[in-house]
Amino acid sequence: MATKELLPAKLKPFQLKSEKNPDWCPGCGDFGIVNSVQQAVSELQLKPWDVAFFSGVGCSGKASQYAQMYGIHT
Asked: Residues 6-58: pLDDT tens digits?
């Protein structure tokens, strides 16, 4: 992995949000999960194209669609 000196300017979590709007119920814990993943990728300064977001079944299965990184709903 590249050192921090070689990475572009620090990504902010909002830059990792997709253009799709979540359709989860208000108060759903899935919002916190997606926000935490975006926060972690930002803090670790991972390149979005080096990250895979795997999600499962049900409403939470759509989580990978709401982040600007590779994702799979399985």
From this structure: 545 778 888 888 888 888 888 888 888 899 999 999 999 898 899 999 988 88
Please give the C-alpha separations between residue 25 and each of 2, 21, 29, 30, 60, in angstroms, as whole numbers: 39, 12, 9, 9, 11
- Cα distance between residue 3 and residue 5, in whole Å: 5
pTM: 0.74
- Cα–Cα dist 49/29, whole Å: 25
pLDDT tens, position by position, 23-34: 888 888 888 889
DSSP letters along 1-27, please?
---GGGS-SPPPGGGGB-SSPP-PPTT
At 64, list the tokens.
């990978």
Residue type, 26: P
